[in-house]
Specification:
Blueprint lengths: L6 E6 L33 E4 L2 E6 L11 E2 H4 L4 H12 L9 E6 L5 H14 L4 E9 L2 H11 L3 E5 L11 E2 L1 E4 L8 H11 L4 E6 L9 E5 L2 E6 L3 H10 L2 H8 L6 E4 L6 H11 L4 H4 E2 L20 H7 L7 E5 L6 E5 L2 E3 L1 H15 L10 E3 L13 E4 L3 E4 L7 H15 L12 H12 L1 E12 L1 H17 L5 E2 L2 E8 L2 E2 L6 E2 L4 E5 L4 E7 L6 E11 L9 H4 L1 H11 L1 H5 L6 E2 L1
Parallel strand pairs: 1-3, 2-11, 5-6, 5-7, 6-12, 13-14, 13-15, 18-19
Antiparallel strand pairs: 3-10, 4-8, 7-9, 11-12, 15-16, 16-17, 19-20, 21-28, 21-29, 22-23, 23-26, 24-25, 26-27, 27-28
Helix pairs in contact: 2-3, 2-5, 7-12, 11-12
């Protein structure tokens, strides 16, 4: 069928409540197809169909918040459409007209419907091509990889990150730029402003796209290509890591590995990477490997509280040698050895210390290192690798954190350290690698306390109380056995674009390097999450075996006392301890 030009037709309606969605969020939808080889793909089919462009006009309502929220809010008429149109109104036309955008998400409820809405509005705004992951699936790092490989203008990520999914849970969306990086706050603020002023939504009257079949379909000058969500990302991983080295480790009869996908997006990647490419046993190696719209009624946050099945496996009798998990959209990770937990702060530091020897991508050494402010200073003691205490790790291979990258990095380290071990010899373990690192650089005892779903007003009052304490504080003041070096409300100015972000954490830093940090996190829809970060450096190797909760107890008690957390929130204990 010949292609037909898009025609413009204004459609007026008197309506209403169209609130946009948040940029600081993320989600997806769908279940992967039956297992088959990813490398002998059927030829893409091409179909040309006519299309009618409709310009819908309405008076939008204000946006309430910009973070992931209840999916029922996003399902309101024109709520998501308002945000998508506001995004296009915020970008220069040359950044998208006739260009290519990537679309995918973490497999959660509403992603498939959202993908159709986004595709039609993209067509209505003159986008030339959409690359969408099969069944709407693309992990956050894979979106970044596809943008960079295909030289796309940007991409949409449908995800609420590690928050629960399903009809009664969260949904969200964000936009990444042409280098694969998340849009800066200056753009998200502009999008929000535009949601309050747009008078029309430009949408193409085209059929829904079959997201289950690989191939190409054209509507006039607009094209949709359904792509395999794994191939571009897998190719990148093969260029970063020595897959033959890792395969040698996984093929050893004396080494066992288990990966928990938490019924989230990395389930679509675990089979082709760990099983088909690296030779892992799919029965023994993959837990919760099928992406589900509600994540199996679970909370896809890879920590000791929510990754219960993996933790039970790794701390039980006959535990595997290495365990790992990833979150809802695939940008976070948790690393475990046999009855041994690696903190995210230690994980990124250990990867940095071993990268040059174990990972081909870093054979000339890392170009640089970076961490988020609350992340422990373990990485600083070493100074292209970055990480954060909230289980995010990555490098400059893409412009996002990358959960599977971190798992492959640890497998590379173990494979390198054990490459000359003969059958029957004791293997170097995850715990061995961590303890050797502490012996060399010292140990940064680190813990994070999460108090989830706190009443927002009480949580904010606690933070204002702490700001008042900081305003009155002076260097040299005694806090129990600790002497204050400084206290502040952390802000950051980007040296590249000059943008500034403020209120990023209330810090109490002491003269011995110990730190207490308080932050409010709003990545979920139910109340507020108070996070307390506690860190203390210990150079004495005889104390490295201490449990972190014991080593940090004086600082933890001080944090609870200074913040008056129980008085403000009524909470006796945290929801999650990292």
């Amino acid at each position: 069928m010949a292609s037909h030009a898009l025609r413009l037709h204004p459609l007026l309606f008197s309506a209403a409540a169209a609130r946009p969605a948040p940029l600081a969020a993320r989600p997806g939808g769908g279940v992967p197809p039956p297992r088959r080889s990813r490398y002998d793909l059927p030829p893409a089919h091409a179909l040309a169909l006519p299309a009618l462009l409709i310009s819908s006009r309405f008076r939008p309502s204000p946006l309430r918040g910009r973070r992931p929220g209840p999916v029922k809010v996003f399902q309101q008429e024109n709520y998501l459409a308002n945000w998508i149109q506001a995004l296009f109104n915020s970008l220069p036309p040359e950044d998208y007209v006739g260009g290519t955008l990537v679309l995918g998400g973490d497999g959660r409820y509403f992603n498939k419907d959202a993908a159709q809405i986004i595709t039609k509005i993209a067509a209505g705004n003159g986008v030339g091509k959409i690359l969408v992951g099969r069944n709407g699936l693309l992990s956050t790092p894979a979106v970044s990889a596809v943008i960079r490989k295909r030289q796309a203008n940007g991409g949409f990520i449908m995800s609420a990150s590690h928050n629960p999914g399903g009809p009664d849970n969260d949904w969200g969306i964000k936009f990444n730029y042409s280098s694969g990086q998340p849009a800066p706050e200056t753009i998200t603020d502009q999008i929000y402003g535009n949601t309050l002023s747009i008078s029309e939504i430009k949408t193409a009257d085209i059929p829904d796209v079959d997201l289950s079949s690989l191939g190409v379909v054209s509507y006039g000058d607009f094209t949709v290509e359904v792509i395999d969500p794994v191939l571009d990302y897998l190719e990148l991983m093969e260029n970063v890591f020595d897959f033959q080295l890792i395969k040698g480790l996984l093929s050893r009869p004396d080494f066992r590995f288990v990966f928990d996908a938490m019924h989230a997006v990395t389930g679509a990647y675990a089979d082709p990477i760990f099983v088909e490419k690296l030779g892992a046993d799919p029965v023994d190696y993959i837990l919760n490997g099928v992406p589900l719209e509600d994540f199996g009624n679970g909370h896809p946050d890879p920590n000791l509280t929510y990754a219960k099945e993996l933790v039970f496996t790794m701390f039980g009798s006959g535990a595997p040698d290495f365990g790992a998990a990833s979150d809802g959209d695939g940008d976070r990770n948790m690393i475990l050895g046999r009855r041994f937990f690696v903190t995210p702060s230690d994980s990124v530091a250990i990867i940095a210390a071993n990268a040059q020897a174990a990972i081909p991508y870093f054979q000339s050494g890392p170009k640089g290192l970076a961490r988020s402010m609350p992340t422990s200073g373990a990485l600083d003691r070493k100074l292209s690798i970055c990480g954060e205490e909230s289980f995010g790790t990555g490098s400059d291979h893409i412009r996002e954190k990358d959960g599977i990258w971190a798992v492959l990095a640890w497998l590379s380290i173990l494979a390198h350290r054990n490459k000359d071990k003969k059958a029957g010899e004791r293997l170097v373990s995850v715990e061995d690698v961590a303890r050797e690192h502490w012996a060399t650089y010292g140990r940064n005892f680190f813990s994070r306390y999460d108090y989830e779903e706190c009443e927002s007003e009480s949580a904010n009052k606690m933070m204002e109380h702490l700001r008042d304490v900081i305003a009155k504080s002076k260097p040299g003041e005694k806090y129990g056995n600790y002497t204050l070096q400084f206290a502040d409300d952390f802000s950051y100015t980007d040296p590249v674009d000059g943008s500034t972000v403020s209120k990023q954490g209330l810090r109490f830093v002491f003269t011995d390097g110990s730190r207490i940090i308080f932050r409010l996190s709003g990545t979920g829809s139910a109340g507020a999450t108070i996070r307390i970060y506690i860190e203390q450096f210990e150079s004495d190797a005889s104390k490295h075996d201490l449990d972190a909760q014991i080593a940090l107890k004086p600082l933890i008690d001080l944090a609870l006392s200074v913040s008056k957390l129980k008085d403000f929130t009524g909470r006796d204990k945290p929801t999650v301890i990292t």
